[in-house]
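Hi,

Apologies if this is the wrong queue. I'm a grad student, and the batch job for Nuclear receptor 2C2-associated protein from Arion vulgaris produced an output file that my downstream script rejects. I'm not sure whether the problem is my script or the file. Here is the sequence I used:
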Amino acid sequence: FVVYVFVMAEMKSSLTEHIHRSRVSSVLNKDTKQFGKGNLFDGDEETCWNSDQGSPQWILLEFNKEVNVKEIHIQFHGGFVGKTCWLESSITGSSDLIKFHSFYPQDINQMQIFTLPELVPLSTLKVVFDNSTDFFGRVTIYKLDIYGNVS
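Support response: The file is valid. Your script probably expects a header line. Output copied below for reference.
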C-alpha cells in the first residue's frame, strides 16, 4: 500500500499563458514593433521591451483567472536594470493594487530569479522599477516570466 502526497503549493509552472492583457509604462521612441511589450514573452533572445526615459517604469499583467505567484524571472540588459523594484497585486474583483514584495536586481545580462517567501494569490500583477542603473531611467528586459500555479 503506497500513499502519494500531492502538494499543489510546491508545483509551479509558467503562468504567461494565463495573461490576457499586459501594459507597460512606456516604450522607447514609441516604437512598439521594435521595443514593445510583446517582446517580453516572445521567447526570442534578440528582442526586448525597452522603456523610454524617466522613472518609475512598470509592467502590468492581468491574468484571465486567479493565479498563485511564487517566482519572477527577469533577464535585463546590463546597464538598463531596475535597481529598486517591487511587486504590487490585486485579487479578482478589486482594482486596488497593494505593494507586497521588494527586490533588488543585479546589473547583469543574465536571467535573475526572484522567489517570493510564499505563494501570492492574485489576478493582477504590477512589476515596478522605481529607478534604473541607466542615468536616464530606461529599463530594458529581454525576457519576463512568472511562475506559480493556477488557483
